[in-house]
Amino acid sequence: MKPLRWLGAGLLWLLAGVIGLLGAILCVTVLLIPLGIPLLMLARRLVALAGKLVLPRGVRHPIKELGDQSSDALGGTKKAMRKGRKKASKATPDKAKKLRKKTERKLGRRKGIKQWT
Fold this sequence. Notes:
single chain, 117 residues, mainly alpha, 6 helices, elongated
């Protein structure tokens, strides 16, 4: 799979080079600048896409890769926060304050840090 991605990235890079050269030539002629500028932007996007194809998935999407691991490592912190917020939004102000404190204690939050404003 990796050689196929590298081949696709190489072809995209060559295509971006040709489109970029054409865009630069069109920008030199003053009358065709409105055609040259979009071609240069397209070439830039194609080069970026070719670069993304070369990189491994963990580098391309670090948040997505860490998302599954972090929720397991933190013991479902996001879920506990969501549950606490949901309960607090349905409760009266006094109950909401108690539920917020309970959730903060459960998650190990320090006093003075506002989580839900």
